[in-house]
Specification:
Helix content is 36%, strand content 22%. The protein is an alpha/beta fold. It has 3 domains: 243 residues, Glutamine Phosphoribosylpyrophosphate, subunit 1, domain 1; 195 residues, 3-Layer(aba) Sandwich (Rossmann fold), CATH 3.40.50.10490; 147 residues, 3-Layer(aba) Sandwich (Rossmann fold). The strands form 5 sheets. Strands 3-2-4-1-10-9-11-15 form an 8-stranded antiparallel β-sheet, with helices on one face. The termini are close together. The mean pLDDT is 94. The structure holds fructose -6-phosphate. The site of fructose -6-phosphate has 15 residues, from helix 9 and helix 17.
Amino acid sequence: MCGIVGYIGNKQAKDVVIKGLKRLEYRGYDSAGVAVINGALSVKKCKGKVSVLEKKLGTSENGNIGIGHTRWATHGEPNDINSHPHTSTTGKLAVVHNGIIENYGALKQKLQKEGYEFYSETDTEIVAKLIENMMDKNPGLDLEDAVRLSLVQINGTYGLAILHEDHPDKIIVARKGSPLLIGVGEGEMLVASDASAVAEYTDKVVYLDDGELAVITKDDYQVLNSHDIELTKEVHELAVSLEEIEKGGYPFFMLKEIFEQPKTVADCLRGRLNVEEGTINLGGLSKVTEELKNAKRIIIAACGTSWHSGLVGEYLFEWLAKIPVEVEYASEFRYKDPILGEGDVVFVISQSGETADTLAAMREAKEKGATTLGIVNVVGSTIARESDGGVYLHAGPEIGVASTKAFTGQVTVLILIALKMAQLRNTITEEKSKRLIKALSEIPEKIAETLKHSDEVKRIADLFTYAPNFLYLGRSYSFPVALEGALKLKEISYIHAEGYPAAEMKHGPIALIDDMMPVVVIAATNHTSDKMVSNIEEVRARKGRIIAVTSPENKEVKELAEFNCTIPETEDELTPLLSVIPLQLLSYYIAVNRGCNVDQPRNLAKSVTVE
Ligand code: F6R
């Protein structure tokens, strides 16, 4: 969602902030702005990309202390006025904000009655005016105290960075519900909502937790809790390299990330599989072995692509570990007043580890006494820190907004966990377990083989670039893949697409099929192959254009389909790791053909930190 960067040190703050904002641009990108102090506070902001803002900066934005923001609009349309930073009436105080102030309407009315005027439609402006009001009423109050006392009045979520012209030696930051970290340098400090913005300058970071406020000076930082008590925070070593956050010769991050998958899945498996012995080692779950062994029910909560991998998990856990599973939209979980009891294990799946709805679902489950486990990519993210245990994907930073390598990472982790649980619960034979573990160790190679067929996918993409609708069908493990394929296409190419369980097609969507309708059939060889053939015949009978994702061994499907995307054979349970690859490529090539900005699709943001 919105990105925040701040700098204090000896460098030109605007240079560091602009560079950081460019790295965060994937999170939210309808407008951007900076505030710098050099004697006086200077603010520049505008609608558009960070590069547009960069061109507007001049010598008046010189200075060694500054904050910046890249916005994903929540309150008020993207325009110059609504862009952050927002300022106090005097223009001495500037605020950048990620999150939503839920009671901003009431606060605004209160301040208006006291004579404050507002220039924007944002909820953020209220923060600037509230702090100003606190300072006006309490002359001599320290900036950090004014911020702390103002925040007490706010309901909602925030990651905030604040500058004041009369306090030119410090940045105040505060967090509740939106990520923030301090980059600890030598003679300089940074703040950011995401580690990629500071990775170039330091590998030492301090993650803020909810309710914390920090006072950051050039040489030091002080973190305080909501009772104004100073905390000793752990300094973490950053696990992000510069190479990982650059495009490395690819035109888009998404393509780089698709092609990285043989490596990211191998990284995810590294040290966790012993093929010879048929064992699985998941250190992050060692504390909850008993809970996993005795679990009576698994609940998976997630959003978007992570929810789709959760659906793959449902098949895996039920097939392998023989345990009932419910997969929940994290955003709805809380509103059901979920009934949780002994024996319930809740997995939350999140690439970013910061998705507001997923985090809220996890906290709800925790509060109700369930064991909560995170399947997360971003090391040190809030979900990773707050869960009772979990497994990292080790996929490296995913920067393209459309999730690709995170999906295969999540499915890989779910396979590992399902196998581990099956072994613990004696629901799998040694022979089958060893066969699956061996097959899993071969998956990175098979993904590489699948990627070799990218030209085949490109040719199909060229033919269907302007199709207005797509239907994706799959059964069993391939059904969530159908949903994921449809999501990928709609989010980056803006083509309407729907995923369905193949048999469900007859109950409605079949009405859409005519000779203009591309129907992508995920037909990995498995126990549903025969039934898939019948569904393909049904589509063919209505002249639908069949694009099959299948293996050369699946001759019947191959012959019936008009177009084929080739994947190698593997064990049934592992097929999502291969069948999703052509679908990622198909959506990528179509989006590029349509001139879409693949990495930064309209209206979307990478990490959805508002509910
Ligand atoms: C789709 C996509 C989103 C995310 C969703 C959850 O390509 O990226 O649907 O999967 O916003 O995000 P995380 O996994 O970070 O919780």
